[in-house]
Amino acid sequence: xxxxxxxxxxxxxxxxxxxxxxxxxxxxxxxxxxxxxxxxxxxxxxxxxxxxxxxxxxxxxxxxxxxxxxxxxxxxxxxxxxxxxxxxxxxxxxxxxxxxxxxxxxxxxxxxxxxxxxxxxxxxxxxxxxxxxxxxxxxxxxxxxxxxxxxxxxxxxxxxxxxxxxxxxxxxxxxxxxxxxxxxxxxxxxxxxxxxxxxxxxxxxxxxxxxxxxxxxxxxxxxxxxxxxxxxxxxxxxxxxxxxxxxxxxxxxxxxxxxxxxxxxx
Amino acid sequence: xxxxxxxxxxxxxxxxxxxxxxxxxxxxxxxxxxxxxxxxxxxxxxxxxxxxxxxxxxxxxxxxxxxxxxxxxxxxxxxxxxxxxxxxxxxxxxxxxxxxxxxxxxxxxxxxxxxxxxxxxxxxxxxxxxxxxxxxxxxxxxxxxxxxxxxxxxxxxxxxxxxxxxxxxxxxxxxxxxxxxxxxxxxxxxxxxxxxxxxxxxxxxxxxxxxxxxxxxxxxxxxxxxxxxxxxxxxxxxxxxxxxxxxxxxxxxxxxxxxxxxxxxxxxxxxxxxxxxxxxxxxxxxxxxxxxxxxxxxxxxxxxxxxxxxxxxxxxxxxxxxxxxxxxxxxxxxxxxxxxxxxxxxx
Lengths: 266, 347
Hints:
The complex is a heterodimer of chains A (266) and B (347).
Chain A: H1 2-29, H2 32-60, H3 68-90, H4 96-110, H5 127-159, H6 167-200, H7 208-226, H8 235-258
Helix pairs in contact in A: 1-2, 1-4, 2-3, 3-4, 3-5, 5-6, 5-8, 6-7, 7-8
Chain B: H1 2-15, H2 18-38, H3 43-46, H4 54-64, H5 66-95, H6 97-100, H7 104-126, E1 128-136, E2 140-142, E3 149-160, E4 166-177, E5 180-187, E6 193-195, E7 198-216, E8 219-223, E9 228-230, E10 236-243, E11 259-265, E12 272-277, H8 284-287, E13 294-310, H9 314-340
Antiparallel strand pairs in B: 1-13, 2-3, 3-4, 4-5, 6-7, 7-8, 7-13, 9-10, 10-11, 11-12
Helix pairs in contact in B: 2-5, 4-5, 5-7, 7-9
């Protein structure tokens, strides 16, 4: 069963890898066939990825997002889902190259790591934990999408290429990604707080992870307000999206791997 | 008069200002960013932050290490100002509710945030956290710093995993006010005993030496605080106290040096107090009664190790979280509704 899960995982990775190559070809040759093929591969990869996630969930008896492998794996799945959401809604086509490349990096970083399913410690054995991590990584995925859209906005501003959506749409998509990411991350913080209260007796921890998570929340709350200020439209907003994702990456990987916290990624 | 009115209006506009909110949020973010860099470098200052309420921690460490903790006061002040700014925005919104009701979701998130901040401030100033409280099975002890409330431990047992390893500990506890049981709960991971702002968590379990077993002319006798033994001369032996670590109270590091305190009561005589240190021979008062007590083994009693937190703002925090969740759902619903109508929202 676990070998089959491993097969599904590699299948998803190969699909994403091929889709990135087709997106790349599309940017060079500009044939609709290439982006259609790339999109079909993303859908196939996402299906395999989802099957693998479902199988691992079934085998473990809990949503397995507890170590570096499983968080990278789940982050990648959430990012693929977020990309599909935007692609299906807005047909962003070549804009998918950057997002899928990021997704490929996440899944590629997960592949060589230990994928064994370990028994869940009692403190994590609660639906609040499942909700906390699911909303956390979905929020992260939207922030990653906003980062990609921010980078593309800066590219488009410089290149003005018909391959990418126009600046207005990119800005609007960026705003949407930030808003949805903020909403999901807020739910992550709320469920995490309730869980911390019943598990440790306090809903806010002065651990560095707790502090930085709140900083991320505050930063994106500020971004949800900054869009009403003319000076922060366009380039400023794109730069903030990039900065915000740097904070997210530090909170997720930097603190999880380099510092001692209550969210270790061993 | 009109000038004063204009000033007041300007002041109110500043209090509700979106730009002010962004400035305060940015400053708070930068302050906490700078401060968080100090945290890993000085674990002896910050490691115990979750073990105490923020007010108590700051009162101790803030004064001792001002160079490392200055940012927490500044961060708190900025968040407080941000909370006030948000509260002003909500009041302003309520004043224009008929025109702005579509923004209800967003403003519920704001209200939730304000309530959470207020609850945290309240809990930090009026709450307390106590760790490492041990309670033996059958024992009743007052809840620290909550007069009139007691905890009774009915049972404590380890919860073993499928491989036989201890995974958790289950302590059956009652919270009493006077003699009235307020709540009874089997406390284990993610299942604390909660009552109003009080949260009692079972952290671990252990054993406590609370007496000694003796052999002698009377057979096997178990002595612990509260024990009564009929003596051969018609009197009665009362044990009032037992200390496994000699005369030192608390968790002192002294070697095992048990000692009993008690008295001998005989009809028509005043009680005769004694102190029996087990490393020494029986005291003369006990020898005279005809007792011969030979220590056999210490008596152990299972204990639960508890953490007790009290946060008076807890219900307010839950209300804030609930409002925020409701606000998020409404804001999401409103966002998609506007989009299906082709009305692109200015978020």
